[in-house]
User: Fold this.
Amino acid sequence: MAKIYFAKMNINDEIFEVYKGEKELSSLLKKIYEKINNEDELYDEYGGRYKFFDLDKVVDDNTKGSLQILGRLGYIKKGVHSSYDPENDTAIDLEDKNKLEYVTFYFDVDRELIAFNSKNRVK
Assistant:
């Protein structure tokens, strides 16, 4: 069975402005909701990139308009997929320039709660 993890988000970068009353936490959270998209990518020094995809933004009327984001966060990098060939009793390795590893997540923006699954398949 797949495991689901829960985490509490923390606005580290602007938290002191929130404590001082210079910024409202709710406005920062709304900004996150509005800015997360499928287009932006973040590249790392290993030639890979991080990207959100399959995003669905929801305003939940059952919880007084709570903002929610469902989707996936992926790491994309050139790699190899391996498979087994039973006829020849050997491994088959296929190059893939967009090999993907990802986590599926749910983010309740107003509660600052993130739930995610660390594996994309069930054992």
